[in-house]
């Protein structure tokens, strides 16, 4: 399929996720660094990216005016100031807004910018920097052409699914915060590995590769976790002993409760006024 040619991207707010997205896009070859403008209030912090060929600026207004796609990537509490800055530059016939901001609806953004500007809400995670993001998209009022454009972008830097906007705070918890949750699990496993005899560095590498293999069993075989767990747990064996000890200490329950609290909090991050 041919996608609309959208040449210039401005990422307003180049912090953790904005820069991860920039790296992934440049790596993918879909958007060269020279077609991406990164904004931040203190642009000295972007020197390394300037050196790599990205355009850097402290001026959200001119960056937006020059862009076809404007990515909003500031914190929820920083958003209203940025929207008020750029509102006058928005050309509804040209601009597509992609917001990665948690807890802010497409309608919130349209109400503050221009009612008929096209806004898509996207929830990537930091693995986008290595083209491994699980990205959830809700399409807002975008045209079919722009929906395909956005899906193509996020499929190039990982895997994307389109979901209803009401589920975006849940997607934030499961997929964006989820990176931290799985990393903490791997870190905990490596700490266990040190207790049973490995040096910290090798324990971390062994835990990470084991986690990657476990995830790939599910993804590549379209298998269910309990089916794969049953293959590991030999009768009267050491796996079931360890697994049950973890469950007695609330392993699954802790993960479920954490995801529920994160989803609730994601819905409370933005103050419209
Ligand atoms: N960090 C993550 O894994 C993810 C974050 N998000 C969302 O992305 C947004 C950004 O999160 P992070 O990257 O973690 O935060 P961050 O604090 O690392 O990045 C925000 C950046 O915006 C810059 N900024 C603030 N005001 C600005 C302004 N007026 N003009 C230009 N730049 C400005 C800050 O200097 C900072 O570099 C949040 O809304 C968050 O909910 C979404 C998905 C994943
Ligand atoms: O912690 C946060 O609020 C952001 C949203 C998802 C990941 N980081």
TrEMBL record:
Localization in the cell: Cytoplasm
Main location: cytoplasm
Top EC group: oxidoreductase
Gene3D superfamilies: NAD(P)-binding Rossmann-like Domain (3.40.50.720), ProC C-terminal domain-like (1.10.3730.10)
Annotated EC: 1.5.1.2
An example Gene Ontology biological process: L-proline biosynthetic process
Pfam families for the chain: F420_oxidored, P5CR_dimer
Domain Pyrroline-5-carboxylate reductase dimerisation as annotated: residue spans: 165-269
InterPro entries referenced in this protein's UniProt entry, alphabetically: 6-PGluconate_DH-like_C_sf (IPR008927), NAD(P)-bd_dom_sf (IPR036291), P5C_Rdtase_cat_N (IPR028939), P5CR_dimer (IPR029036), Pyrroline-COOH_reductase (IPR000304)
Catalytic activities: L-proline + NAD(+) = (S)-1-pyrroline-5-carboxylate + NADH + 2 H(+); L-proline + NADP(+) = (S)-1-pyrroline-5-carboxylate + NADPH + 2 H(+)
Binding sites annotated in the UniProt record for NADPH: 60
Domain Pyrroline-5-carboxylate reductase catalytic N-terminal: 8-102
Binding site residues for NADP(+): 73-76
Pathway note: Amino-acid biosynthesis; L-proline biosynthesis; L-proline from L-glutamate 5-semialdehyde: step 1/1
Tree of life domain: Bacteria
Entry coiled-coil feature ranges: none
Keyword entries, A-Z: Amino-acid biosynthesis, Cytoplasm, NADP, Oxidoreductase, Proline biosynthesis
GO annotation, cellular component aspect: cytoplasm
Gene Ontology molecular function, alphabetical: pyrroline-5-carboxylate reductase activity
Function: Catalyzes the reduction of 1-pyrroline-5-carboxylate (PCA) to L-proline.
Family from the record: Belongs to the pyrroline-5-carboxylate reductase family.
Protein name, as recorded: Pyrroline-5-carboxylate reductase
The organism of origin for this protein: Pedobacter puniceum
Gene name for this UniProt entry: proC
